[in-house]
Amino acid sequence: IRFQGKLYFDEKQTPVRMLGTILDITEFKRLQQQKDDFISIASHELKTPMTSLKASIQILEKLIKTGTSPDKVSTFIQKANTSLLKMQHLIESLLNVSRISAGQLGLQKTSFNLAALINDSCEHVRMTSDQELVVTGDANLDVYADSAKIEQVVINLLNNAVKYAPASRQIIITIDKRGNVARVSVQDFGEGIAQDKIPHLFERYYRVDSTGLQYSGLGLGLYISAEIIERHGGKIGVKSESGKGSTFWFTLPIHN
Ligand code: ADP
């Protein structure tokens, strides 16, 4: 609690009146703390791929000097590339959060084939994961949307499936047409999510403490994904069963 004000005295210097405001700064302090925690987590999240990128470059330098085989060199170039992609994805997320806060998440819409975009996103995720990604459903659906942002949504959902369902050998991505919308679902066979946590998943900074905290993350992926999908006039949601896995899905209006 913070007090700001003034005391008034009579001619005998006895205080007779006090005027001022009492400010409850608990919420202010909580937000400040949240901001500090966020900066520290975000810096750590950036530092990890950066350290690994630095290590790859140092190894590459040595390998090139000693004339090592191109195969070995190429492995480390791949590693460096993976670290760069992680950093790029993280920075893109941070930028998107500021754009959302400022009401400036602009959309650049074009018409594109949904299956092609999903296959590209799978290629991207395969660079960092061994799990099998299977794409099924309607390969001919076109949507009118911001392809870079939709790709971000798909990559977020795929990365989450890979990260939070490591025991799930397969991840199934299904594309289908339901009335006048296209629906994409990402199904994993991992631990699933407790029902009481589900309503919070799409909130900013939210992470499930029982599963989320042992993995790296900022609690922004689903928040950003929801904003992107809703800005397109689509819907996003999840169905999950503890011990059986989760299916995250979103819809987009179909381009005729
Ligand atoms: P982050 O992955 O950075 O924590 P997200 O917004 O992408 O942020 O996810 C929020 C939380 O939702 C995660 O911390 C995790 O606890 C939970 N979650 C997301 N996807 C899955 C999934 N496929 N299976 C289980 N839990 C998940």
Average pLDDT, to the nearest integer? 92
State which percent range the strand residues make up. 15-25%
Widest sheet: strand order? 4-6-7-9-8
The percentage helix is: 40-55%
- Order of helices and strands, N to C? EEHHEHEEHEEHEE
Radius of gyration from the alpha-carbon trace, in angstroms: 24 Å
How many beta-strand segments?
9
**Could you tell me which ligands this complex binds, including any ions or cofactors?**
adenosine-5'-diphosphate
Biggest pleated sheet = 5 strands, mixed
**Any low-confidence stretches, pLDDT <50, length ≥5?**
none
Based on helices, strands and strand pairing, what is the structural class? Answer: alpha+beta
Which helices and strands, and how do they pair?
Blueprint: E1 2-9, E2 15-23, H1 26-65, H2 70-101, E3 110-113, H3 114-126, E4 132-137, E5 142-145, H4 147-164, E6 170-178, E7 181-187, H5 221-231, E8 236-241, E9 245-253
Parallel strand pairs: 4-6
Antiparallel strand pairs: 1-2, 3-5, 6-7, 7-9, 8-9
The structure holds adenosine-5'-diphosphate (ADP).
